[in-house]
């Protein structure tokens, strides 16, 4: 076990660079950086040709440790602050990569083209930022494209517009700064000096804070790149999301179900004996083919679960315009994977002694809790509750059934999106988000786990009394089809439109009719109503033909039978239940 005192006295601070495609994120990261890591600056050849980021790029720069942070460090004496820049792609079809990057950042830089302003993907990046990060700086890039005589006015106008956009978000009042990361554009010679970068570095220093870093607990590392070094082994690079790793530790690559021993660890080309939560590292292992792992996670052996389905808390993203329906399929980003899944919504049935309070304040307290002991009601779609002047959300959960198993940590963020929507369309493709609360590891979860989920659907059936057998027995019709298994309904209570209650005793004949026992007997007026309607049937006409008088007397209403029950969606016995 390496001594923590041997660690380099550098605090690592992860800054995500997000924004619309072509807003100049990579140029900005390049202008800021002094040390490029292995995954940095678009190793993808297609990306180099087009000048856009297709993968998570990483790079870093180091500054003297800011004075305002020294006061909050206690006995941890750092001498420098390393900003690790996570350059997330802005290309619309690669939103899943952005989500993967956003989960490992402390502060977000939202890069906006000062000429074009907010665009669809800028808004999506802002939404992802709200779900994954609590601090943000807005960068108005490409100010060199503005005419010099109108530049300041245009920058002020865009700054004001950005503040208005952020007014109702968690980033209200965040700093906005203007730069030109690559004057003249990507093709311009490097002799053109970037504008506003020194000011941006000072702003980032002032915005930096001491992130929560905890070396305890199991290791979870988000992997973004994997490559081999001849004679050394395979280097897995990424960011440690939780726990710590030491030389000689055994780690697991859960997606491949293999374990390997850590031979050495590097942080930006400097060998270190250990690394902890928040650090960006390269971990060298032996006898592992790098082609098997490009992106994913590495963890303490046995600490992660591979799930076939999961229960999540769920909240719709307000900018998503579509209906979010049960049984629909969405792209689900969970942990560092994106996979298709079918979704089914449900909400909690309030206990007998509580009112069904629909207000968000009453619901938020239980949003991240879930129990198999609770009773739930199936929802056909995500439910909005009528509120004071506007529709409000009621707390609800969802069952996700994955098309292929996913490996992820407990209680991780889940984002549902429609990545198959038109990437050029001016619509938000992020539909909902939530937290993973319960996972099902058994491939046969539909038989072993889902029956524990008490999700019911309410059913109503209506039929009519055909005739009276005696004062305590009637025959009912039109309640069931001929092929219905009536045994499932024996013993259920029914109510007549005249007020009496009875119990289904069983079938009558072969055509789906039923015999109903009325324990309190029929009321006199009900018997009269039924006898008069049967007399009318007897007048004129043949056995199977309605009589003339029946046709001409529309006021002779039949006595209807009402059957209300619920069925648990995942009950293998399909039992009917009445409260």
TrEMBL record:
Q: Which Gene3D superfamilies match?
A: P-loop containing nucleotide triphosphate hydrolases (3.40.50.300), Translation factors (2.40.30.10)
Cofactor(s), names only, from the UniProt record: Mg(2+); Mn(2+)
Q: Which GO terms describe its cellular component?
A: cytoplasm; nucleus
UniProt-listed PROSITE patterns: G_TR_2
Q: What is its main location?
A: cytoplasm
Cellular localization per UniProt:
Cytoplasm; Nucleus
Look up the record and give one Gene Ontology term from the biological process aspect: selenocysteine incorporation
Q: Which CDD domains match?
A: eSelB_III, SelB_euk, SelB_II
* Alphabetized InterPro entries for the sequence: eEFSec_C, eEFSec_III, EF-Tu_GTPase, EFTu-like_2, P-loop_NTPase, T_Tr_GTP-bd_dom, Transl_B-barrel_sf
GO molecular function terms listed in the Swiss-Prot or TrEMBL record: GTP binding; GTPase activity; translation elongation factor activity
Write out the entry's keywords from A to Z: Cytoplasm, Elongation factor, GTP-binding, Hydrolase, Methylation, Nucleotide-binding, Nucleus, Phosphoprotein, Protein biosynthesis
Q: Which residues form the Tr-type G domain?
A: 10-212
Annotated spans, Disordered: 524-564
- Catalytic reactions of this protein: GTP + H2O = GDP + phosphate + H(+)
Role? Translation factor required for the incorporation of the rare amino acid selenocysteine encoded by UGA codons. Replaces the eRF1-eRF3-GTP ternary complex for the insertion of selenocysteine directed by the UGA codon. Insertion of selenocysteine at UGA codons is mediated by SECISBP2 and EEFSEC: SECISBP2 (1) specifically binds the SECIS sequence once the 80S ribosome encounters an in-frame UGA codon and (2) contacts the RPS27A/eS31 of the 40S ribosome before ribosome stalling.
- Recorded protein name is Selenocysteine-specific elongation factor
Q: Which organism is it from?
A: Triplophysa rosa
């Amino acid at each position: 076990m390496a001594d923590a005192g041997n660690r380099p006295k550098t605090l690592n601070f992860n800054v995500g660079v997000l924004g619309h495609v072509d807003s100049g994120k990579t140029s900005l990261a390049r202008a800021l950086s002094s040390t490029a890591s292995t995954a940095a600056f678009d190793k993808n050849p297609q990306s180099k040709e087009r000048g856009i980021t297709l993968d998570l790029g990483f790079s870093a720069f180091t500054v003297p440790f800011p004075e305002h942070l020294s006061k909050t460090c206690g006995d941890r004496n750092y001498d420098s602050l390393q900003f690790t820049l996570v350059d997330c792609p802005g290309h619309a079809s690669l939103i899943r990569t952005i989500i993967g990057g956003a989960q490992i950042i402390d502060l977000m830089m939202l890069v906006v083209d000062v000429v074009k302003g907010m665009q669809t993907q800028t808004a999506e990046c802002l939404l992802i930022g709200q779900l994954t990060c609590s601090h943000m700086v807005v960068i108005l890039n490409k100010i060199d494209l503005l005419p010099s005589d109108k530049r300041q006015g245009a920058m002020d106008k865009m700054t004001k517009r950005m503040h208005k956009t952020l007014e109702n978000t968690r980033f209200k009042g965040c700093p906005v700064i203007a730069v030109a990361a690559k004057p003249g554009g990507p093709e311009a010679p490097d002799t053109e000096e970037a504008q506003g970068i020194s000011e941006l570095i000072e702003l980032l220093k002032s915005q930096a804070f001491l992130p929560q870093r905890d070396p305890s607990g199991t290791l979870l590392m988000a992997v973004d790149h994997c490559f081999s070094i001849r004679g050394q082994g395979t280097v897995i690079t990424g960011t440690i999301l939780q726990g710590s790793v030491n030389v000689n530790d055994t780690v697991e690559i859960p997606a491949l179900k293999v374990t390997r021993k850590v031979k050495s660890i590097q942080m930006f080309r400097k060998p270190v004996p250990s690394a902890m939560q928040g650090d960006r590292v390269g971990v060298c292992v032996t006898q592992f083919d790098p082609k098997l792992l490009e992106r994913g996670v590495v963890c303490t052996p046995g600490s992660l679960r591979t799930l076939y389905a999961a229960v999540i808390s769920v909240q719709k993203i307000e900018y998503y315009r579509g209906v979010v329906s049960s049984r629909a399929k969405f792209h689900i980003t969970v942990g560092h994977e994106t996979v298709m899944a079918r979704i089914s919504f449900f909400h909690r049935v309030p206990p007998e002694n509580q009112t069904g309070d629909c207000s968000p304040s009453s619901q938020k307290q239980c949003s991240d809790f879930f129990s198999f002991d609770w009773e739930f009601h199936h929802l056909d779609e995500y439910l909005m509750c009528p509120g004071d002047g506007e529709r409000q959300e009621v707390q609800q959960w969802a069952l996700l059934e994955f098309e292929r198993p996913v490996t992820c940590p407990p209680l991780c963020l889940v984002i549902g999106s429609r990545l198959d929507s038109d990437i050029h369309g001016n619509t938000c493709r992020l539909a909902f988000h939530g937290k993973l609360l319960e996972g099902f590891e058994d491939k046969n979860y539909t038989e072993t786990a889902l029956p524990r989920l008490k999700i019911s659907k309410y059913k109503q059936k209506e039929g009519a009394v055909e005739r009276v057998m005696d004062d305590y027995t009637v025959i009912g019709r039109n309640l069931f089809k001929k092929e219905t298994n009536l045994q499932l309904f024996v013993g259920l209570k029914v109510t007549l439109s005249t007020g009496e209650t009875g119990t289904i005793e069983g079938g009558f004949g072969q055509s789906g009719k039923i015999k109903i026992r009325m324990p309190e007997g029929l009321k006199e007026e009900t018997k009269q109503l039924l006898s008069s309607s049967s007399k009318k049937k007897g007048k004129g006409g043949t056995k199977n033909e309605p009589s003339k008088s029946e046709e001409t007397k529309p006021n002779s209403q039949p006595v209807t039978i009402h059957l209300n029950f619920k069925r648990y969606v995942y009950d293998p016995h399909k039992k009917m239940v009445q409260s």
